Amino acid sequence: MLYRGMDRAQLDDAYNNGAAVPERDAIIADWAVRSERLRRERPGRLDLRYGDSPRERVDLFLGDDPHAPTLAFIHGGYWQMNNKEDYAFLGEGTLPHGINLALIEYTLAPAARLDRIVAEVRRAVQYLAEHLGDYGADPTRLYVSGHSAGGHLTASTMPLRVVRGGIAISGIYDLEPIRLNYLNVKLGLDKDEAERNSPLLHFPPMAGELVVAYGTRELPELCRQSVDYAQAWTERGLAGHLLPIDGADHFTILEALANPEGELMQALLAMTAG
């Protein structure tokens, strides 16, 4: 057995979110349509460069009062797929509340190893902290969120002093099972790289509030990863809590952020108010 009593085939299945949600393609297609509509209706500052490589870019959508909190969102795709453009639909939730939305893109595996991906995302967050003021936003009110691989990357930004708080959604916090399953074909993780990029093994001495969210209809391993990480986070005296989203799967959970009245949006509002 490779990990927690699972052989390779079982471990592959345990992390195959796409196979677990037959409606995945339709859900993602809907995100793309809604994102295109939002970009038409709310023109943003697009492709702001935080680095030299082609995908080191950020899109920024400002609310009616730009001097408001900003949510920097990091897309998922197991560090090897997707793009920032298809996540603009999250502005359906943030912008009505006056919260600016920044969408971070990063170099994907196998073109980049995970060390580089983590470094890029941290650099993107630092870039926002340094440049939000150029657009009238408040650089001291920067929050980070991300989904799936983006949940992992959200956790990886929490040690940054510029991050006021975070919402990690359906993330992976222990990378050892990823190193041992089908996802590592493109990631190429070795044991040391998996260890140093596993948030479950590295907690900051101080950090802003972190909400760790997952859908109750997700694969058991995804649920366990969130439960274990949230417990370990709070046991160290760090501010935050676990937030199960009842009835959500790995993809529909984002509606809780895209809906102005959704549970994740309400968690963000409570965080920014605090």
Describe this structure in a few short sentences.
By secondary structure, the protein is of the alpha/beta class. 38% of the residues lie in helices and 16% in strands.
The overall pLDDT average reads: 97
What order do the strands of the largest sheet run in, or round the barrel if closed?
1-2-4-3-5-6-7-8
Question: What is the terminal separation in angstroms?
Answer: 46 Å
In CATH, the homologous superfamily goes by the name Alpha/Beta hydrolase fold, catalytic domain
Secondary structural class: alpha/beta
Q: Class, according to the CATH hierarchy?
A: Alpha Beta
What is the helix/strand order?
HHHEEEHEHEHEHHHEHEHH
| Overall morphology | globular
Q: Low-confidence parts, pLDDT < 50 over ≥5 residues?
A: none
Tell me the β content.
Answer: 15-25%
> What share of the residues lie within helices?
25-40%
Main beta-sheet strand count, sense and barrel state: 8 strands, mixed
In total, the number of domains comes to 1
CATH topology: Rossmann fold
Question: Can you name the CATH architecture?
Answer: 3-Layer(aba) Sandwich
